[in-house]
Amino acid sequence: MTELPGEIAILVQQVTGESGIGPQTRLDGDLLLDSIELAALSRLLQERYGEEADLLRHVASLDIDEIINLSVAGVARFVEEREQR
Amino acid sequence: MSRFLFVSLPLTGHVNPMAAVAHALTDRGHEVAWAGSEAFLRPLIGAGHPIYQIPLRAHRGQRERGLEATKSRWEGYIVPHAKVTQKGIEAGVSGFSPDVLVVDQHAVAGAVVAHKNGLTWASIAPTTMELTRPFAALPKVEAWIQEKLAAIWTTGGMPGSPPHDLRFSPHLLIAFTSTTLTGSAPLPENTKLVGPAITERPKDPAFPWDWIDPRRQLVLVTVGTLSMDLAESFYGKVVEALKPMNVQAIVVAPDGVIPDPPEHVLVRSRVPVLELMPRLSVVVSHGGLNTVCEALWHGVPLIIAPIKGDQPINAEQVAAAGAGVRVSFDRVSSGQLHDTLLKVLTDPAYRAAAQRVSDSFADAGGAAAAAVHLEQLASQQNED
């Protein structure tokens, strides 16, 4: 599963058009992803990893600091945990 | 005749619509006083109304964006502001004996003082930040805000926890927008949407009106005074997008930020926005509520690149109403901006939708309607 953060970085790049995205890049804290971009990313994740990879629902369960600090690696962990269930 | 004490924040965009309402109340024979800083408020509200002094805690231009901005708005501003201003507001209540407190949604100490003294009060929403509860989909963020409100309540010397969300008066909530813009967003039952309360501003005799060519479409680009430091790359893209177009454009930007603009682009650090509005074909903006409402008031469509605060909400609302297009402030390309400008300038649907919003604003009644709602609230209170 080590390549998962890289796959997700590519999806984030697709949604934002930003370059230089790595595992530590934060969606809100660094990229200032807006609600439309977050929804688009959530859709891409679900298309690729299944309905369970509902990022919007995951973000809705987080507190303010967790949302600010949610990184590409954090999204990868979320997707991985979904897949293992 | 009733007495109204206005409790504001030292933010021009918040005070301007409240001042329009305050003057409308004076015109109807009521008495108005303010709790605020003389140095900040006086130039905005004019000579007539007494001010009960509260310390000026200036709002430094927020550098944070995203949810960091939400955090710093509450922890760095709203909570400490409530703490340092409560005493001054209480002095205003005992000195002026108001029938009604009129409180900015972010001046939470006003709500606490109203409860403490058993006074009727109205909430004012000068921005759309709190109006439609943008964090409803993030329950833990909403709960975190409620914690901050509870802390203000306790620090203010009140027992237990707040009886309701202190951003929303149980008596009356006035907001300067209309349902054509807020759409289906749920609002509290006691909400009155009065449309923009636009105030006259000083004329600008130095503006080069001769430069404007009446045969060409005119574009205004203005991304607000708080965000100039963020705007440099955005201006570059806008100018690039405008270069091949047969229009004229006025860009509000500080001196030197746009070197060598093309001849059909005029760069000025200040422009008479309200006077220009009737001549404009489109406004490119960051989506501050004042600019959005002033453009729509004149039936001018918008391209909005929101930066922070309530701007993404305003951008969404304008796009949903069909009166403009939302683009990404950070990520839009000059090519996309060019195409978007062409689309909004050539498709009459945008202007028609902006005109529909304009009509809804006119129906909503503005500052005069807000004054009538406040007057009714005061007279109900006197009957009780």
Detailed description of the structure:
The complex is a heterodimer of chains A (about 80) and B (about 375). With about 80 residues, chain A is mainly alpha-helical. Chain A has a single domain, classed as Orthogonal Bundle (Non-ribosomal Peptide Synthetase Peptidyl Carrier Protein, Chain A), CATH 1.10.1200. Chain A contains 5 helices and no strands. Chain B has 2 domains: about 5-195 and about 365-384, Glycogen Phosphorylase B (Rossmann fold); about 210-360, Glycogen Phosphorylase B (Rossmann fold, 3-Layer(aba) Sandwich), CATH 3.40.50.2000. Helix content of chain B is about 45%, strand content about 15%. Chain B has helices at about 10-25, 40-45, 65-95, 110-115, 140-155, 180, 230-240, 275, 290-295, 310-320, 335-345, 350-365, 365-384; strands spanning about 5, 30-35, 50-55, 100-105, 120-125, 170-175, 190-195, 220, 250, 265-270, 280-285, 300-305, 325. In chain B, helix 7 packs across helix 11 (about 335-345). The longest helix of chain B is centred in the first third of the chain and has 31 residues, at about 65-95. The radius of gyration of chain B is 21 Å and the shape is globular. The two termini of chain B are about 15 Å apart. The chains are: A mainly alpha (about 80), B alpha/beta (about 375). The interface of A and B includes residues 28, 29, 33, 64 and 66 of A.
Structural class by helix and strand composition of chain A: mainly alpha
Give the helix level of chain B as a range of percent: 40-55%
The number of domains of chain B is 2
Under CATH, the topology of the largest domain in chain B can be stated as Rossmann fold
